[in-house]
Design a protein that fits this description.
Blueprint lengths: L2 H4 L1 E2 L2 E2 H12 L12 E2 L6 E3 L7 H5 L4 E9 L5 E9 L5 H10 L1 E2 L6 E2 L5 E7 L11
Parallel strand pairs: 3-8
Antiparallel strand pairs: 1-2, 4-7, 5-6, 5-9
Length: 136
């Protein structure tokens, strides 16, 4: 048996193959530094949520639909980088974007880290009245 064949895999040196495999299974080590901001719950709590207006043309033409809007939330609780992710009808996109832009979230404390995860809201535009149960 050729000794060189034992030490190579598909023409690559065995050391390179083993190093690549070690990188795939090596755990990620993160230093626990007390000076760094601590991560917070990725679920930011709404402070003020505006519901979008039903477009008059859509109501007149009896059009229903759904829009999913994704956005970032700043440390101060404002929304930014608002974008439509999914939409069943473009007529509902502008009202949904305006509603997200006007909504606010609870600001983060100074020692908390911003998660960097986008938040998303789905608005359903239906002509049937929706019953909302109050928590009394």
């Amino acid at each position: 048996m050729n000794h060189q064949a034992m030490w190579t895999t598909s023409g690559l040196p065995m050391r390179l193959v083993l190093t690549a495999l070690a990188c795939l299974v090596a755990p990620t080590i993160v230093a626990d530094d007390a000076d760094e901001p601590q991560p917070v719950d990725t679920e930011r709590k709404p402070l003020f949520t505006l519901m979008p207006d039903y477009p008059k043309i859509a109501r007149r033409d009896r059009i229903e639909g759904e829009v999913q809007v994704c956005f970032d939330i700043t440390r101060g609780g404002r929304t930014r980088r608002i974008a439509v992710r999914k939409s069943t009808n473009r007529i509902f996109e502008k009202p949904a974007i305006r509603a997200v832009r006007a909504s606010t979230y609870v600001p983060l404390p100074d020692d908390a880290a911003v998660s960097g995860i986008k938040a998303c809201r789905t608005f359903r535009f239906t002509l049937e009245p929706t019953v909302v149960e109050s928590e009394s």
